[in-house]
Amino acid sequence: MSDFINTSLRSAVYGGAMTTNSELFGTANARLTEIVEGVEDWTASSPCTGWTVRDVLDHLIDTERDFLGQHELDAGPRPDTAQEPADGWRTHSSRVQAILDTPELAETQFDGFFGPTTVGATLARFYGFDLVVHRWDIARGAGVDSRFTDSELDLIEQSLEGFGEHLYMEGICRPALPAPADASRETRLLARMGRDAQWRPSVNA
């Protein structure tokens, strides 16, 4: 994982082009926000066992806020997601984006769990991975079909390889599920993360 994070200290190859950490996060956030703004029932079950769709969004906000707080970066007051989750997400993600757009903050270096890295690289790649994968969870819970792009599949695959044995630690992914031999790349990666590509709220809730 250290190699995976370290290669992203300033920029990364994403979708065939050199992309900054700010752009990486911004792209993932834009696609997630599009899904978030269309959710009608925030109390619906999600593919994350025991979590509602709102719980998944709260997880994204709280884990990013915890990370920023550890590095004494001000993310502002915790936005309210009880009444207007989409508004809360827009407020939170705009604050994170502002940090990524500020070089002296984004390039702050620290020794992470997997080795030396920066605040920007961690937000873009580690937490960016969360944005991409949990977008699928939120979309599924909301009854919306959201597919991963080829670039996102590359990111997920690289991330899973980087996690190694840590992938199935508590709080990351459930144990892998079997996938059909002829399964698509997306279905195989979802299964590797303990997710059933056929999950539907009306069936699995």
Average pLDDT over all residues: 89
How far apart the termini lie comes to: 34 Å
CATH fold-level topology: Four Helix Bundle (Hemerythrin (Met), subunit A)
Largest sheet: 2 strands, antiparallel
What global shape is seen?
globular
Estimated share of beta-strand residues: 5-15%
Helix content: 40-55%
Please identify the top-level CATH class: Mainly Alpha
Strand order across the biggest sheet?
1-2
Reading the helices and strands in chain order gives HEEHHHHEEHHHH
CATH architecture: Up-down Bundle
Poorly predicted runs are: 1-17
Give Rg in angstroms.
16 Å
Explain briefly what this protein structure is.
The chain has 205 residues and is mainly alpha-helical. Helix content is 53%, strand content 8%.
Helices, strands, pairings?
Blueprint: H1 2-6, E1 11-14, E2 17-20, H2 21-36, H3 53-70, H4 85-100, H5 103-106, E3 109-112, E4 115-118, H6 119-141, H7 150-163, H8 185-192, H9 201-204
Antiparallel strand pairs: 1-2, 3-4
Distinctive features:
205 residues, mainly alpha, Four Helix Bundle (Hemerythrin (Met), subunit A), two-stranded antiparallel ribbon, two-stranded antiparallel sheet, 9 helices, 53% helix, 8% strand, globular
Description:
This protein is mainly α and 205 residues long. The chain is built from 9 helices and 4 strands. Strand 1 and strand 2 form a beta hairpin. Helix 6 (119-141) packs across helix 7. The protein is globular. It starts with a helix and ends with a helix.
